[in-house]
Amino acid sequence: MDISSLAAAIAIGVGAIGPGIGIGILAGKAMEAIGRNPEAAPKIQTAMILAIAFAEAIAIYALVVALIIKFV
């Protein structure tokens, strides 16, 4: 195993921690908001899905960096 494999593993591992925590907190707060105000569920769900997509984009950037480290 060469050093680039280790560097790629660390890059994607560290890069996935933030979005994972963020998505967990975001979903938990959205479920809490829906529980408190069920009639606002469609608006909350739309905003939650959009925010999750933005958070997931950060993990995709980490994946791209890991692939660049591995293959370049």
Order of helices and strands: HH
| CATH class descriptor name | Mainly Alpha
Largest sheet: none
What's the end-to-end separation, in Å? 16 Å
CATH topology, which one? F1FO ATP Synthase
CATH architecture: Up-down Bundle
- Helix/sheet category: mainly alpha
Strand residue content: under 5%
Silhouette: elongated
Whole-number average pLDDT?
94
Helix content: over 70%
Rg on CA atoms, Å: 17 Å
Q: What is the domain tally?
A: 1
Low-confidence stretches: none
Task: Explain the layout of strands and helices.
Layout: H1 3-36, H2 41-71
Helix pairs in contact: 1-2
Transmembrane segments: 6-27, 48-69
Organism: Candidatus Taylorbacteria bacterium RIFCSPHIGHO2_02_FULL_45_35
GO molecular function, one term: lipid binding
Explain this structure:
Belongs to the ATPase C chain family. This protein has 72 residues and is an all-alpha fold. It has a single domain (3-71), classed as F1F0 ATP synthase subunit C (F1FO ATP Synthase, Up-down Bundle), CATH 1.20.20. It has helices at 3-36, 41-71. Helix 1 (3-36) runs antiparallel to helix 2 (41-71). The mean pLDDT is 94.
